[in-house]
Design goal:
The chain has 135 residues and is of the alpha+beta class. Helices cover 56% and strands 16% of the residues. The chain has four helices and three strands, in the order H-E-E-H-H-E-H. It has a three-stranded mixed β-sheet, sandwiched between helices. Strand 1 and strand 2 form a beta hairpin. The chain is flat, with a radius of gyration of 25 Å. It starts with a helix and ends in a 10-residue tail after the last helix.
Length: 135
């Protein structure tokens, strides 16, 4: 199948899943969810919806349980939007990419904060670049 068609279908799946989760699901377990991306199989039979979850580990587990429970409802909304022979079976997957990028940013900022005091001490002292015997 052509890749541009797969990309269009994946984008529609992402849009429908995000709108449905945000506006139509009324499950109290599902909160703090962001749909980051989707992957659709070449035969359009299966779709993975990657989500980023906020909260504690227990809240994230409850949210994933609620999302798995509501996958059929999201799939029904997708079937109404897609006019294909088959509607992809939706599977929700936790996207760890956002958490990893936040952790990398934190580590970079930490390393920068540790390197800054050394350069500030040298420049504030004024003796790092000058020769004391010249005068």
């Amino acid at each position: 199948m052509k890749t541009h068609r797969l990309a269009r279908v994946a984008e529609i799946v992402r849009e429908v899943a995000a709108e449905t989760i945000l506006f139509e699901l009324q499950d109290p377990r599902i909160k703090g969810v962001t749909v980051t991306r989707t992957e659709v199989a070449a035969d359009l039979q299966h779709a993975k919806v990657f989500v980023s979850l906020m909260g504690t580990k227990k809240e994230q587990d409850l949210c994933m349980h609620g999302l798995r429970h509501s996958a059929g409802f999201v799939q029904a909304k997708l079937a109404a939007r897609l006019k294909t022979r088959y509607t992809p079976v939706i599977r929700f997957v936790v996207d760890e990419g956002v958490k990893k990028s936040i952790e990398v940013t934190r580590l970079i900022n930490e390393a920068l904060a540790q390197s800054r005091p050394e350069t500030e001490i040298q420049s504030a002292d004024g003796t790092a670049d000058e020769d004391p015997e010249e005068g």
